[in-house]
Amino acid sequence: MIEQKMSLTQQFAKQMLPSFADGRLKPLVNRSFKLEEVAQPHSHIENHSNFGKIILTI
């Protein structure tokens, strides 16, 4: 099981990360929160209120 996950991660890195690096693909960001608001994004995720990535800015 762990070997399969490692293999998939390596395949993703090899095949997809270059597309993120050159801007062809962009992550879908749902919302950004400040570090001081750390409880809010946690609650946001627990309530399944997000579609996309949650960003925590420092």
Which characteristics define this entry?
single chain, 58 residues, alpha+beta, two-stranded parallel ribbon, 19% strand, extended
Q: What does this entry look like structurally?
A:
This protein is an alpha+beta fold and 58 residues long. It has one domain. The protein is 47% helix and 19% strand. It has three helices and two strands. The chain has a two-stranded parallel ribbon. Strand 1, helix 3 and strand 2 form a beta-alpha-beta unit. The radius of gyration is 15 Å and the shape is extended. The model has no long low-confidence stretch (mean pLDDT 92).
Beta fraction: 15-25%
The SS-based structural class is alpha+beta
Helix % is 40-55%
Order of helices and strands: HHEHE
The largest sheet is:
2 strands, parallel
Q: Give unreliable regions as ranges.
A: none
- The total count of strands amounts to 2
Give the arrangement of secondary structure elements.
Blueprint: H1 2-15, H2 17-21, E1 29-34, H3 39-46, E2 53-57
Parallel strand pairs: 1-2
Short description:
Helix content is 47%, strand content 19%. It is an alpha+beta fold. It has one domain.
